[in-house]
Amino acid sequence: MHPIEQLLYFSSVLLHVIIASNPILAIYQLNFAGFGAVVGHIGFDKIEIGEAAGFDSHAYAHYLHHKYFEVNYADGLVPLDKLFGTWHDGTAEGEARMNGRYEKRQARVNAVRAGGPTL
């Protein structure tokens, strides 16, 4: 995380200075902000609880973001990725959409480098 981004991220605790609240709430918010990202970075799509049992992790979409970086910028709760076409759900169709965007962007870059019109 960039230092400026980190400063903005942790500055949310200043809300407790503006709106007087219990200091325990401010400590909880700092704790949640500091350690909350651990859950989203576990890197597994399923959590196994036995030989044949397991449950889906919410972190799979975030894992795909780290794998491809061009997809799943939002956390899934806000449908911005679906709105802007950057949603990848791990299926072959999601892979095809991602590759189509990449090829389109690459063609645009190649056209600019060649001095031709942009697409």
Shape: flat
The pLDDT mean sits at 82
Helical content band = 55-70%
Broad structural category: mainly alpha
Number of helices: 6
- Main pleated-sheet profile: 2 strands, antiparallel
Strand content: 5-15%
What topology, given as strand order, has the largest sheet? Answer: 1-2
How does this model look, in words?
- The longest helix has 22 residues, at 92-113.
- 55% of the residues lie in helices and 5% in strands.
- Strands 1-2 form a two-stranded antiparallel ribbon.
- The chain has a domain at 59-119.
- A hairpin with a 5-residue loop joins β1 and β2 (54-56).
- It has 119 residues and is mainly alpha-helical.
- The two termini are 33 Å apart.
- The protein is flat and about 60 Å long.
Topology of helices and strands:
Elements: H1 3-10, H2 15-18, H3 23-40, E1 46-48, E2 54-56, H4 60-68, H5 80-84, H6 92-113
Antiparallel strand pairs: 1-2
Summarize this structure as a short list of keywords or feature phrases.
single chain, mainly alpha, 5% strand, 119 residues, flat
Concise synopsis of the structure shown:
Helices cover 55% and strands 5% of the residues.
